[in-house]
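Technical annex, item 7. During the second reporting period the consortium partners agreed on a shared format for inverse folding records so that results from different sites could be compared directly. Each record opens with the tokenized structure and is followed by the designed sequence. A conforming record, contributed by the partner at site C, is shown below for reference.
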């Protein structure tokens, strides 16, 4: 279902759009296009999850629909439509309507795109332009992506699409070819430390250093590391990758650190953390170890892609992650 763009930022970052680090080039390209004679109708905001793409999309959409002499609402804007994961089922929908915490579905559904397209048959409410934000577009189910493609091929007059993509390669090539791409780079360690000090002041210097090392340039991932309490899990992952786990004891401890019923958010964060551990192993390894590292990283990428849509047992998932990490130690001892 399309809903008005919320005024609050997504995720845990509470910064204003102007405070986000690394957005300067994206803002420059966006504003040059906005001031040009013909604004492109489709945009992809591409970069790691947690670098502030959602906040950029919301602020950019407000600039897009604003018109001189037309007062803009301070809260929800009727000409900014925002699509994301809907509630998981009817029971979760009721929780959402009651203002209670609710679980999200794993994908953006085709019905949401179809309802959006019905809405686009009407004129914008306030001015001559309307913005549609899909967050994240790479989580659309197949039918939804194909349905959206029709709107991108023949966009309604005055309608502009802003697609947020954490993994642009998961978008249909035909969607990518119809959009301009704004890239959001990884953030430097020094800037990451400044963000963590401001957003997670409870984190120690040691914890901040571990979060920065694990987050690979994503402030949101670093904040997740602190707030989801991934420090012990990170330590165990590093130990398994270095020494192996022949008696499965380290994998058992890692499963215990994850908890009996970890949230999907924590499971996804743990997979991303394991990818960071594997990537870090590339520094200074022998050429004989590279195939095992590449294979483990590829398997974790596949797990990361499957986890939002597959109904994995949390315990088995973390054991599989541990086994992939243990394969790195085995490859080193065999070399």
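Designed sequence (site C submission):
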């Amino acid at each position: 279902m399309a809903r008005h763009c919320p005024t609050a930022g997504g995720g845990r970052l509470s910064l204003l759009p102007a405070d986000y680090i690394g957005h300067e080039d994206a803002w420059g390209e966006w504003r040059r296009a906005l001031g040009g004679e013909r604004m492109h109708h489709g945009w992809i905001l591409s970069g790691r999850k947690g670098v502030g793409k959602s906040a950029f999309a919301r602020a950019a959409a407000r600039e897009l629909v604003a018109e001189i002499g037309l007062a803009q609402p301070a809260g929800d804007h009727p000409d900014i439509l925002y699509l994301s994961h809907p509630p998981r089922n009817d029971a979760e929908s009721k929780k959402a309507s009651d203002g209670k915490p609710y679980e999200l579905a794993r994908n953006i559904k085709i019905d949401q795109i179809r309802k959006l397209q019905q809405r686009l048959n009407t004129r914008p409410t306030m001015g001559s332009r309307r913005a549609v934000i899909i967050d994240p577009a790479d989580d659309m189910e197949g039918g939804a992506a194909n349905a959206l493609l029709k709107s991108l091929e023949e966009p309604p007059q005055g309608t502009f699409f802003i697609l947020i993509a954490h993994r642009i390669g998961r978008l249909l090539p035909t969607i990518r070819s119809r959009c301009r791409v704004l890239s959001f780079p990884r953030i430097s360690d020094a800037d990451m430390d400044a963000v963590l000090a401001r957003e997670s002041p409870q984190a120690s210097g040691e914890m901040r250093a571990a979060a920065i090392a694990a987050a690979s340039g994503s402030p949101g991932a670093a904040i997740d590391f602190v707030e989801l309490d991934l420090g012990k899990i990170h330590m165990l992952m590093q130990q398994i990758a270095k020494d192996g786990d022949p008696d499965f004891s380290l994998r058992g401890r890692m499963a215990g650190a994850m908890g009996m019923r970890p949230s999907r958010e924590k499971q996804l964060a743990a997979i991303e953390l394991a990818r960071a551990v594997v990537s870090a192993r590339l520094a200074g390894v022998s050429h004989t170890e590279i195939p095992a590292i590449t294979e483990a990283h590829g398997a974790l990428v596949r797990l990361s892609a499957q986890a939002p849509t597959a109904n994995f047992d949390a315990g088995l998932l973390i054991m599989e992650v541990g086994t992939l990490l243990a394969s790195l130690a085995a490859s080193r001892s065999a070399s």
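The mean pLDDT is 86. Strands lie at 3-4, 42-47, 80-83, 130-134, 159-165, 180-184. All partners now use this format for quarterly exchanges.
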